[in-house]
Design a protein that fits this description.
With 164 residues, this protein is mainly α. It has a single domain, classed as dinb family like domain (Four Helix Bundle (Hemerythrin (Met), subunit A)), CATH 1.20.120.450. 64% of the residues lie in helices and 2% in strands. The protein has helices at 2-29, 33-36, 47-66, 75-80, 87-106, 126-152; strands spanning 116-117, 124-125. Strands 1-2 form a two-stranded antiparallel ribbon. α1 packs parallel to α6 (126-152).
């Protein structure tokens, strides 16, 4: 039974990240490079910042924390960057990172889910790291969706299209 629960959790986590990637594609396709780096006030993050941040977080918690890869994250740079990446470069970065993370999650042995890890000096189980990443990506994708709707003045039809 526990093995079934573990497999459902891992498969669902991968599916949610795939779904988020698809939704990000829809948003980014509707935006220009300029819009991706647009902010209304200094305290706001751009869509570009959010994409960099999500890549950094996924790499840090899953590839480093769970997978043991070298920690190369410079978190402050994710938010201080104000240009330098095109829409396509950001999408490529996100796709590459998400694909690596999905592969790592799918390959986690069930018995490792309760193993303790300490990315960022925070003690957590592997299961917690995966759960955090999936929720974190969904949270920031919600911001990207809202910003995209505001910038384009359009519904994105990410769910079942509704008659207008």
């Amino acid at each position: 039974m526990h093995s079934d629960i573990a497999e459902v959790f891992l498969q669902y986590s991968v599916r949610k990240l795939e779904e988020v990637t698809s939704n990000l594609d829809v948003c980014m396709a509707r935006l220009t490079d300029e819009q991706i780096w647009q902010r209304q006030a200094a305290h706001e993050n751009t869509i570009g910042n959010l994409v960099l941040h999500l890549c950094g977080n996924m790499r840090h918690l899953i590839l480093h924390g769970v997978g043991g890869a070298q920690d190369v994250r410079v978190r402050d740079r994710e938010f201080s960057t104000s240009s330098g990446y095109t829409r396509q470069q950001l999408l490529d970065m996100f796709h590459t990172t998400a694909a690596e993370v999905e592969q790592r999650i799918a390959a986690v042995p069930h018995e490792r889910l309760t193993e303790r890890i300490t990315p960022q000096g925070r003690d957590m189980a592997v299961l917690e790291a995966i759960y955090h990443v999936v929720g974190h990506v969904q949270q920031h994708l919600g911001q990207i969706i809202l910003l995209t709707k505001q910038m384009t003045g359009q519904d994105l039809d990410l769910t079942v299209p509704r008659p207008r």
